Automatic annotation (TrEMBL):
This is AMP-dependent synthetase/ligase domain-containing protein. Residues 37-162 form the AMP-dependent synthetase/ligase domain. It holds the Pfam family AMP-binding. It comes from Chaetoceros debilis. SUPFAM superfamilies: Acetyl-CoA synthetase-like (SSF56801). Gene3D superfamilies: N-terminal domain of ligase-like. PROSITE patterns: AMP_BINDING. InterPro entries: AMP-binding, AMP-binding_CS, AMP-dep_synth/lig_dom, ANL_N_sf. It comes from the Eukaryota.
Length: 178
């Protein structure tokens, strides 16, 4: 059973080097290091997720730690299965990377592209949503250039990017794509 809260805290300590100060030069006061001890219960609220408002006013939905944990577990389980099935480079699962342009106020951007990869210890590359809309092909180009293992986006994003390829670039198996 993966404890998302503990994973985030552990990863933050590692990434931010909490508790380790600069020994030489006295640049950091080690007496005030982080001693974070809060342990939320599974039904405690992790955050409020606002609906899009497409059918009315946006509404805040309370997301519990257990719901967040279940979502992160499902994402990472699926990612691990895909990684093991398609990993011909033998890259360890913890060394994967991701690229996203989906904003973090959207559940896909917050949980799928930020929290889950963070819990797994992956490198996360972020692209501005505005940049994506202006140049959807850049998303595809960066996936290859950065050699990311996972990227996510709603269906329209893939359709939009595919439409932006010019006719000479649309090839598969040396056959043109209609």
């Amino acid at each position: 059973f993966v404890n998302v809260h503990s994973m985030i805290h552990s990863q933050m300590k590692k990434e931010l080097k909490i508790g380790s100060g600069i020994e030489e030069g006295g640049g950091v006061d080690n007496t005030n290091t982080c001693s974070y001890t809060a342990q939320p219960k599974s039904n405690d609220i992790a955050f409020l997720q606002y609906t899009s408002g497409s059918t009315g006013n946006p509404k805040g939905v309370m997301i519990s730690y257990s719901a967040l944990q279940s979502n992160v577990q499902a994402i990472l389980h699926h990612a691990r299965v895909e990684c093991e099935a398609n990993n011909n480079t033998n890259i360890p699962f913890g060394d994967c990377s991701t690229l996203s342009w989906v904003p973090q106020y959207h559940d896909m951007g917050l949980i799928g592209a930020t929290i889950a990869p963070f819990c797994a210890g992956w490198s996360c590359h972020m692209m501005s949503p505005v940049t994506f809309v202006q140049n959807p092909l850049l998303w595809m180009e960066l996936m290859g250039k950065l050699r990311v293992h996972f990227s996510l986006g709603p269906d329209f994003a893939y359709h939009l990017a595919a439409r932006k390829f010019n006719e000479k670039e649309k090839l598969t198996g040396k056959e043109p794509i209609p």
